[in-house]
């Protein structure tokens, strides 16, 4: 990280370093590759994968921690685009992404093999959050195998083979959450 300056020629070595150097409402571009990190975000930000054809950057939690934690501040907004998030883990909520109070937008992302107690891949509670055109497969939780949403919109997503040992094999919703134009295939819940 100490040799990079964040340019295309000399990129930062880690996503967390790029986040730490960014200002509110910046966009952090993430190049193709696999990043074994757990990052914390404390200001509004866009994390955008720089795709090459159909390949996207991969953020891998290695099964040892949550991939993205957003500070509990309802003035923060986070946008995730064109990323693959896999193997995230939390004993509490959101194995891949936890953004309880902040408004989050997730577009064209893929979530695989994430696990937590609530929202195997994502936990959000903001009424203006949007999860759009994203794919969730083989995530698991006690409640909300893939997503636990306390508001917002889930639109044009696919949920495949997600499981919950309690409620909501694919999604657990509370309050005014809208799900539209989404596909659910072989998801299961015990209760």
Strand proportion, as a percent range, falls in 35-45%
Which segments are poorly predicted (pLDDT under 50) over 5 or more consecutive residues? none
User: Could you say which overall geometry the principal axes of the C-alpha atoms support?
Assistant: globular
Radius of gyration: 16 Å
Give the integer mean of the pLDDT values.
95
Through-space gap between termini: 47 Å
Instruction: Compute the number of helices.
Output: 1
Q: Could you say which structural class the secondary elements and strand pairing correspond to? A: mainly beta
- Helicity level, as a percent range? under 10%
How many beta strands in the DSSP annotation?
24
What is the N-to-C succession of helices and strands? HEEEEEEEEEEEEEEEEEEEEEEEE
What about the largest sheet? 7 strands, parallel
Strand order of the largest sheet: 1-4-7-10-14-18-22
């Amino acid at each position: 990280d100490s040799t990079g300056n964040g340019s295309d020629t000399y990129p930062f070595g880690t996503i967390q370093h790029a986040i730490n150097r960014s200002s509110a409402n910046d966009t952090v571009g993430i190049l193709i590759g696999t990043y074994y990190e757990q990052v914390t975000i404390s200001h509004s930000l866009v994390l955008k994968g720089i795709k090459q054809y159909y390949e996207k950057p991969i953020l891998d939690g290695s099964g040892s921690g949550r991939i993205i934690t957003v500070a509990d501040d309802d003035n923060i907004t986070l946008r995730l685009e064109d990323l693959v998030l896999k193997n995230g883990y939390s004993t509490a909520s959101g194995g891949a992404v936890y953004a309880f109070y902040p408004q989050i937008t997730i577009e064209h992302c893929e979530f695989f093999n994430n696990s937590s107690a609530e929202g195997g891949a994502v936990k959000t509670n903001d009424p203006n959050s949007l999860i759009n055109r994203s794919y969730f497969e083989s995530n698991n939780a006690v409640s909300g195998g893939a997503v636990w949403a306390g508001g917002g919109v889930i639109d044009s997503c696919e949920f495949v083979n997600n499981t919950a040992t309690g409620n909501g094999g694919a999604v657990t919703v509370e309050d005014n959450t809208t799900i539209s134009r989404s596909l659910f295939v072989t998801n299961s819940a015990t209760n």
